Each structure stands twice: as structure tokens, then as C-alpha cells.
Amino acid sequence: MSHRTDLLVLLLLTALVLMLGAALTGVYQVFGYALVGAIGVTAALGFVRTGVRASWVPPVMATVVLLGSFIGMFQFEHLTVASTDDTWWGFQPGTAFLIYGVWIPAFFTLALGYALVFDRISAGEAPGAGAGGRHE
Amino acid sequence: MSDQALIIGMMALTIGITLAIGLHSYFEARTQQQYFAYGQNLRWFVLGLATFSTVMSGFGFVGGPGLVYSLGSTSFWMTFAAALGIPLSFALVGQKLHALAGPDVITLPDAIYKRFGSQAARLAMGLSILLGIVAYLGSQILAATFVLEQVFGWSFLPAFVTALIVVSVYPLVGGIVAGIRTEVFQGAIMIAASLLVFVYALQSGGGLARITADVAAANHAMVSPWGTAPALTALGYLFVFGLGNVGMPHRTSRFLMLKDTSQLKYSVLIATGCYMVGSLLWITVGLAVRARVATGDLAPLVAADAAAPTFLATYTPGWLAGVAFAGLMSAILSTASIFLNVGASTLTRDIPLALGRPVRHPLFWARTWTAVLALASGGLALWSRELVGLLGAIGYGLHAAALVPTLVIGLHWARATAAAVVTSTVAALVGSLYFFAAQQLGFAASRSWWVPAHGFPSVGLVMLVSMITFIVVSLLTSARAEAAGR
Fold first, then answer.
1. Stated pTM of the model
2. Which residues of chain A lie closer than 8 angstroms to B114, CB-CB?
3. Rounded distance, CA B422 to CA B73, Å?
4. Closest CA to B277 of B62, B60, B27
5. Coil, strand or helix: which one is B384?
6. Within a domain: A95
7. pLDDT tens digits for range A74-114
8. Structural domains in chain B plus CATH codes
9. Is the ipTM of this complex over 0.95?
């Protein structure tokens, strides 16, 4: 077990507790930012391998893009659309951040990112170390 | 040829080809490893397309557009979440599960047993997978029945019997080999249907910006990022259908079937890309119909689920409606067949092994359990269609809450313990049953049971509690084990 994994799991626990508290109290902005944190940490759990610096790129990029999109959504959620001129690439401005900041970039940051770093993270995966613990 | 004849012809052709591919797979499903794990010879292209087919259920073709029609952008979050969830599942679970796979590890509970060395953990996984599947299968059979009623004009009973036979016969005969090969064919139909319907949806409304402006004029909340639901509902969907996606056993178990790890590299692009194309139908049809209603071109729909059928009947040529209905049937069959196979593997292998009573003649029992599961789910659907609909809603939630902590955290974290697997699974089961009784059965309204406010999905709450439980119990029990070890 690595110190890094311990730290990531504790960060995930923090994000989950924040999300639970925000969900119960209705503070959706806090839930949103904690969710971005939780997604970033779980992505790091899946991608990052010791000694492979490139393996940090997809989770960090995904987290930064998600964070920017959530800021945009919270900023523009109330803008009204009175005509087609008020839309951003076909959508209400806040929703445009959802479409072009959350949905489409997920393919490039996580899916394409996985394919691009795959060989390096596979090399960083010790044979037989499929799981964190017991192997028979 | 009339439009109706075209639709019937395309549907009959789709079912016929599905059955032919599925039944032919009998010759390659001669061992447990082949019947349940594709002979552990799954390649990247098939993995990618089959993963997309499994994730995109019939809900994406009817229920999704219906939700967009009634809630606006709220429903976007459900389908967009999968664009995050699919690559996350490859990164989080793909290599880890494949590293555990082998002749004696062909199911998820097998892998959990190998990771944690605990039959209790294997049993907990097996039971939660089985309960979720039984809850979900009946709704898929009813969905297939609905499609056959609509297309062929049959009454309920003949449509139901036909749906039951089609859904169950080829996975029964050919196991996962049949399920996966037919998924490739079904996936191709779904992509074609989604792309073509997307183009017609944009044309019908004069482009995205025009559609957005028309919908906003009638109800501005529908085009905002959260739609008409509270923001926590939309954000909750991203959590439940994003991270929750990683816990779906019918698609995660594919990673135990790979020929080798390198098959993951490009299949993630196919699976994610195809699903995003599939989402185009989901997000545009509901908006297009809502825009046409707002401008007075269409009368308001009686039921939201009529959005996609109404759009196809009004704004597309007959041949495209045929492709779309074939795509819908494909989506239902692909999901149901894999559920049947995973359920049969749990009953044939996981639960008996966990109880120390492995079965003799596993293939005989696998086919028997496939038939029993199909008949039981069908019987439940016949007994109470309403109950099956409600149970279907908790099937996904139970899988997400029970499996996500173990797969997302447990496969990576050496401090994770078998006690945490069992405890978090029990928390998921109890939480799911509680909210099923409180919300779906109406106990919250009639007996003042507590339910979350602010629109947050109860499934998300159960997922949060089970994940927190998993980490806390692991910390407590691993520390105790380390102290005992010293």
C-alpha cells in the first residue's frame, strides 16, 4: 500500500462527507465543487502510477476542466434566453458549460487521456499487483 | 411498401438476426469459462461496442427523451454522466480486474474473493448482484412487450410471451458469447438510429438555438443547466450515473473476459464515443418535441414517454421509424440478455461456492437458472406491472451502492477489508429497501418516514453512505488487524 493511496482515500472521504452534508442541507454549490473533487480523486486512484508523471495528466486535466465548467454553470445559471442571439452555441449559457465543458471534454480528458497514457500506466503496473492486497 | 410494413419488416429482421447470431453461439459456449466469461478472449473492438450496447438500455430511447420533454436539461445529466463513468470504469477497474482474472476467476464475486480472501465478501457481492438483477429484468421484459405491442399491434399476452422468449432464449443457449456477439450487431443499429434521428430532430426545430429559444419562451427553467428540477437533482444524477456506472456488474464483469490488458487501450474510445453518439437522440428529441408543443405545432403530450414515438411518427420517414424501433428493441435485448447471464452465473457459481457447495454440471445449471430467472422476472411482471416498474428503479441503485465502494476503493486500497465489503453492502441493501418503502411504496407520505429534501436522489444518498461506511470500516478493521498482527 502506498502513502499516496492512503492520502487519496482520505481526500475522497472528505469529499464524500462534504457531499453528504451539502445534499442534506441543500447547499448545491458546495455539493457541486465537492463532487468535482470526488471525481478528480477517484480518477487519480485509477490513473496514477508511482513514478509515472504522465499518469497525473488525465485526472488533473479532467478536474481543472470540470472545475471551470462548474464555475461557469453557477455563474450563468440564471441568464435568460429571449432569442437565439442569447444562446451560446445553441444553448442557454449555463447549459453551454454543461454541454461543452462537462460532457464533450470528458471524452478528451478521460477517455482519450486513458488511451494516450495507457502504455505508460500499464508498464507502471507491477505483474500480479492487480489489487491493493491479497493474491493467491 | 407502407410505413407500417417497413417498421414491422425492420423489427422482424432485427429480432431474426439477433436470434440467429445468439443461437449460433451455442457451439462456442461449451465450458463455464466460455459460457460466463467469453473464454477470456474478448478483443478491443467487440469490448468497446458491446460495452456501449450494455450501458445504453431502452431507457435511452424512450424514457430519456420523455424526461427531457418533462424536465428539460435535468435529464441531460443522466446521460452525460456516462461519458465520465465509462472511462473512469476502464481506469479504475479494467486493469485491476484483468490482473485478477484467470480460469478460476470468471465472475465479479470470484474476483472479490481472490482480492479479499473472504467467502462472506463473495456472498455479499453475489446476493447484491442477484437482487439488483431480479429487480431490473422484469422491467426490461415489459419494455420489450411494449415495443412489440406498438409495432405489431398485438395484445399484451402474445407480445409478453414473445418478448419473454426472445429476451431469454439466446442468452440461455449461447451464454455470454451470444450476449456479446449480438450486442455488436445491436450497437451498430443503435448508433445509426441515434445519428439519423438527431439530424431529423435538429431539422424539425430549425437548429439548436431556435429549439432552445422556443422552449425558453414557454418555460425558461427547462433550458437552464439544472432543468426544472432542483439543482441537487441534476448534480445527484452526475454522481449516481457517473461513479455509479463503475458498479454495474453486467458491464464491469467484461474486464474479466479480456484476451489481454492491451484490449482496454482503444476500446475505451469506442465505448465512450459510441455512447456519446447514442446520447444525441436522448437530448435532442425531447427538446424538439417540447419546442414544437411550445410553438403550437403539436398538441401537448398526454404522457412524457410518448415524446420519442410521437416525434418518429410525425417528423421522420417510415424507414427511419423502423430503424429507431429496431434500435430501441436492440437496446432492451442487449441489456436484458447480459443481466440474465450475470444472474445465472451468480446462482450457478458465486452463491454455491460462497456456501461451500459447488454445483456439478455447471452448464446445465447455468441454462436452468437462466430460464428460471427469465420466468421468475416474467411472472413478477405479470403479477404486478406497477411493482416491476418500481423495482426496476431500485435495481440500478442497489448495484451502484453495493458495488461501487468495493470496486472503486477496494481494488486500489490495501487497507480495504472484507468486513468493509460486507458492511457497505449491507448498508446499500438496507438503504435501498428503506427508500423503496419510503418513496416508491409511499410510506413516507402515509407514515411520515424520512426522505431527503432538496431533490437529492435517494440512490445518491445510499451510495454516499455505503462509500463512507466502506472507508471508515476499513480504517477501523485494518488498524485492528495490524494491532493483532503485532
1. 0.93
2. 131, 134-136
3. 37
4. B60
5. coil
6. yes
7. 999 999 999 999 999 999 999 999 999 999 999 999 999 99
8. 3-383 (1.20.1730.10)
9. no
